[in-house]
């Protein structure tokens, strides 16, 4: 473990990561978009990291859910261990040359990997890449991501897209949460021996999936 990025040692033991978006009171009452905050937990519900989104009010109001952001992820000692950077890009399949691309750094300033959206007319598809931009894994979502009264699973697959090795799940959390706030609960399941850098990139992929497919509040009603 001495070769692992500082702060990622704990991910070496995990095959499941829970990401819980915290409820913002102003957002819940007025539907006003606020910066997202997340708790990242182990399967026992113990907090491992805390994540805060940084961007401007202009980005959140006019560009959500394709807004640019930086998410800083800190451990329980307050040390920033992962940084997720999303530039402003398009998410429409009509613009395949400018689809989503997200960079994950760990430690901050050192590339851990990338999440790249792939063009597909029907399915949400992404490629997980390492720090050298070499393809490592695929993520393939369902035809419909509305997830009414049920979980929504994005399957993590080998590069041949035939073998499923894990998943990113958006958990159904009830009518109030899903209609009136942006609050979300996600689970990431991956092999325990997966490189911790790629596990960090999977956390970034989860944030991207959340904003692309589950960004809903009173503003959109």
Question: What's the quick description here?
Answer:
This protein has 221 residues and is an alpha+beta fold.
Query: End-to-end span in angstroms?
Result: 48 Å
Number of helices: 4
- Percent range for β-strand residues: 25-35%
Helix content: 10-25%
* Average of the residue pLDDT scores: 82
What best-fitting shape do the alpha-carbon axes yield?
globular
Biggest sheet record: 12 strands, antiparallel, barrel
Question: What is the structural class?
Answer: alpha+beta
| Strand order, sheet with most strands | 1-2-3-4-5-6-7-8-9-10-11-12
Low-confidence stretches: 175-182, 217-221
- Please tally the β strands and state the result: 12
Tell me the domain tally. 1
> How are helices and strands ordered from N to C?
EHEEHEEEEEEEEHEH
Radius of gyration: 16 Å
